[in-house]
Amino acid sequence: MRMINRWMSVLALALLGTACIEQEMMLEEKPRTQAWNLTVRAEKEPDTKGLDLVGNRLNTLWRSSETVCVLAKGSYLAETLAVTPDAQNAKLATLSGSVNVSEVNVDDVLTLQIPRQNWDYTGQKGVLLGPDEAGSIEKDYAYALAEVTVTGVTPGSEMMGTLTTTNAHFVNQQAIYRLNFKNGDASLAVKDVTLSSSKGKIVLGRDLAAGTTTYGSLTINMATSSADLPDGMIYVALRNDDTTAQDYFFSVTGADGLAYTGSKAIPAEAFSYGFLGIQDLALTKLQLPKSDTPVAEAL
Question: Is residue 25 part of a domain?
Fold first, then answer.
């Protein structure tokens, strides 16, 4: 009887050891986040609303100061990719960096986004160019997206592997509008412009990870007035999710402190262009200043 009990104890310990080994194996087989070297060849399409102004044409160029955000499995990664423009053709570039992502497989799709993760059109200053100027379209508002498909997954030593993908073809997500205004026959310098649409689909911000879009009226505040901008022109990065014919409405504060309003009919075909001009738009002056100026001073 003692012998039987002894063998039963040995058998129980053996079974317990086997269960522990199986549990350890299961833990090891769980997917773990791994760092991957990622290098992508990228281009910006010829009709992308780029940021190199030559006459009335905006060309698309990569800047070495740009960074590229990566969206994988519905979430933004903490890491970004650096940009190395081609020496002979700045419309092409190599994007590279190390990213941390788990469970990556061949045929997975990664979304690449520039210039920043925070997709927000508010805070514009009417300035087009300025790679280092906060509030310029070039630095903060020239959003573009590309999707790439993972074509190779090569695990490496010490949790550092290599991912290969298809080439990235970036498409801009907004048009660039060039505006200026008139009061009667005279050019009107303005301090701010609020633009709204009869269809109510002007985008203020997007969140790809959450799948949400915010709509409303977009306000552009000049640092001083439009008279201090190049050629007195106001540039606006504008995404409109309704591309049917509609009216745009403008509420303007002039450099004189007075309030002005105006509107412009936008035909549907205009939305196929990436660079549009609404020039010398005649505004109607309101009777009182659009400010906190006391009524006695306004009369």
Answer: no
107, amino acid identity = D
Does 296 map to a domain? no
Are 112 and 179 within one domain?
A: no
In a domain, 17, yes or no: no
Angle at 99 between CA 98 and CA 105, to 5 degrees: 120
Residues 54 and 180 in one domain: no
Q: Is 75 exposed, middle or buried (0-12, 13-18, 19+ CB in 10 A)?
A: exposed
Q: How many domains does the chain have?
A: 2
- Could you tell me if 161 and 180 lie in one domain? no
* Alpha-carbon torsion angle 85, 90, 93, 97, nearest 10: 30
**What distance in Å separates the CA atoms of residue 60 and residue 197, rounded to the nearest whole number?**
28
Examine the domain organization and report whether 60 and 157 are in the same domain.
yes
- DSSP code at position 63: -
Boundaries of domain holding 99: 34-172
Task: Please report, in tens digits, the pLDDT of each residue of the chain (299 residues total).
Answer: 555 555 455 445 554 454 444 444 444 444 455 899 999 999 876 544 334 555 555 557 788 888 999 999 999 999 999 999 999 988 899 999 999 988 899 999 999 999 999 999 999 999 988 777 888 888 899 899 999 999 999 988 777 899 999 999 998 899 889 999 999 999 999 999 999 999 999 999 999 999 999 999 999 999 888 888 877 899 999 999 999 999 999 999 999 999 999 999 999 998 887 778 888 999 999 865 555 544 444 33
Structure tokens given for 295: 């009524």
Distance from chain centroid for Cα 41:
19
